[in-house]
Amino acid sequence: MIDREDLCGKALEMRSRAYTPYSHFRVGAALLCKDGSIYTGCNIENAAYTPSNCAERTAFFKAVSEGYREFTAIAIAGGNDTVESLDYCAPCGVCRQVIREFCDGSFEIILAKSREEYKVYTLEELLPMGFGPENLDKKMLYGADDRL
User: Fold this and answer.
1) Catalytic amino acids?
2) Is pTM beyond 0.85 here?
3) Rounded to 5 degrees, what angle do the CA atoms 93, 98, 104 make?
């Protein structure tokens, strides 16, 4: 069972650790592993922009680097640090693709405005027809009888 309010709370807490001197848009994420472990992340900006990293990817990369590969849900909370109330903050396209690498379409993405106010989507809803590891299966790409 997913404790969505707890996961949202952890994502909201992580916003305070975000490094956002350029956009001032703070995002926190809390990733729930199938064994109940939670990995958190925040966005980290860079003056060169491209090396910046989103909160969702930070959480995934931390978990994967510790050996986790099975995930249940992620909560995301984000918004401008000058605004008192948050709006729903969906993952960017790159983060959706990273999520797709490790998760199937039923993975839950929880967009939090507060611990109690959130929306839940599946990965399939946010990334229909996503490209995943199975798309690189040689039999799928070339047919079972074709030779490479």
Assistant:
1) 56
2) yes
3) 105
